[in-house]
Amino acid sequence: MVSFRASAAYRIAFTYAAAFAAAILLLGVAVYFAADAEFRHQRDQALSEEVADLAGEGDGAELIREIAERETGRATDAFGYALFDRAGKRIAGALDTPRPPLGFSEITFIDPIEGPDVARAEAVDLARGDRLVVAADSEAIEAIDATILWLFGGAFAVVLAVGIIGALLLGQYLRRRLGAIETTANAIVAGDFGRRMPVGRDRDEFDSAALALNAMLDRIAGLMDSLRQVSSDVAHDLRTPLLRLRGQLDQVGRVEGAAQRAIELGDELIKLFGSILRIAEVEGGGLEQGFTRIDLSALVEDVGDGFLPALTDSGRTLDWQLQPGILVLGDRELIAQAIANLLDNARVHTPVGTTVRLTLDVGARWVRLSVADNGPGVPDAERDAILRRFYRGEASRTTPGNGLGLSLVAAVAAAHGGEVAIEDAEPGLRVTIVLPKAS
Q: Strand, helix or coil at 429?
């Protein structure tokens, strides 16, 4: 099991939590400074309005009286006032501070209760030369700033705690899901080829990946079964021709024609191995890169015309019904070989007088290519088996062949994203290749 510190699941979870916490912190800092700036702007605006209002009272006794009234009225806690003469002497107001410069400035004043304190002040000169000063204590804004910091600090601590808990839960969830995949993979490596990745009911990304992996494992299992079958069938089916070849070689020099028959047996073995290699090449995949748009109608007609003399000479009849202009994406040579195999199968495994029907039609998404005959057909129990390599039914034991023709047809159909269907033609047999229609 991977350690906590080395776990990618926990690294991802805590990285996300840290990024989220950093974003919250940046947002909080931005809100704090924006709020502080807005409060200070509003304070300066209030100071300017208060200064303008007092300056409108004029100079002298009326202004001094108005300052005294405001200091004893409701606005005592809001503003402090001072009026200085040209010499800098405070002649009105209770604001105990030196004469400040014009405009806005930070001043230090003597608070009767707290002692020296800081305030924001605005000073303007009046017509007679006196300087009017209105100040607002910064303590209120500092208290608001402290409250914002306290609230944000508490909220950030909660967010940080939730982020850590969420990261732990997310990391645990990711480790559990990935651990199930790892356990299954280790079991398969150990030889339990029947195991599959667990798939939940939510069909999330992990389930989609598990389904894809299971499909891959099914494909690998099928290829392994096919390999085992091929190995067994090759060993079984090659035994007889090799014994015959050995017998013919023993007779070379003693029996006339033995050398020629040995060469013919050797050619049959070479053809057999060529068919096996061709199927392996098709099933190996990677053919899609060479796929082109093919006029399947024209291709089927060409192959049918090529097989017509052989079928006619063997006492069979070939009829076809083809829809024109049907297009598919694929390998022209492979599809032509698959069609030829179906027609040759019908020629070899049906009696004289059989009618072979070649049809091609198209639906909304699929193309159906069928080769049917009115011969003896295939028993129901053998319909799936005849697509296997080297399989030969009892009725075909006396006919030439190696049982690879339909296997190649099935491999070609699968390589093109299609399938092969074996059906009863009532009477006879119908083999249908279903391929995706080209868009």
A: strand
Q: How far apart are CA 146 and CA 151, in angstroms?
A: 9
pTM: 0.48
Mention the CATH class of domain 289-436: alpha beta
Q: Which residues of 144-155 are buried (b: 16+ CB within 10 A; e: fewer)?
A: ebeebeeebeee
Question: Helices 405-415 & 258-283, crossing angle to 10 degrees?
Answer: 20
The residue extents of the domains of the chain are: 1-191, 205-283, 289-436
Which pLDDT tens digit goes with each residue over 86-140?
Answer: 888 888 888 888 999 999 998 888 887 778 888 889 999 887 888 889 998 888 8
What the block records as the tokens of 99 is 């004469």
| CA-to-CA separations, 20 to 16, 23, 28, 359, 418, in angstroms, rounded | 6, 5, 12, 64, 49
- For residue 76, is pLDDT > 60? no
Cis link prior to 351 (omega < 30° from 0)?
Answer: no
* Residue, of 238 and 382, whose pLDDT is higher: 382
Q: Is 371:304 a contact under the CB 8 Å cutoff?
A: no
Question: How many residues can be counted in the chain?
Answer: 439
Helices 405-415/332-348 angle, 10° precision: 150
φ, ψ for residue 331, nearest 5 deg: -100, 115
333 Cβ contact list (under 8 Å, min separation 6):
none
What is the structure's pLDDT at 78?
75
User: What Å distances lie between residue 376 and 339, 350, 386, CA to CA?
Assistant: 21, 7, 15
Question: Please, which residues have CB within 8 angstroms of residue 295's CB and are 6 or more apart in sequence?
Answer: 325, 326, 327
In angstroms, the CA 328 to CA 295 distance is 7
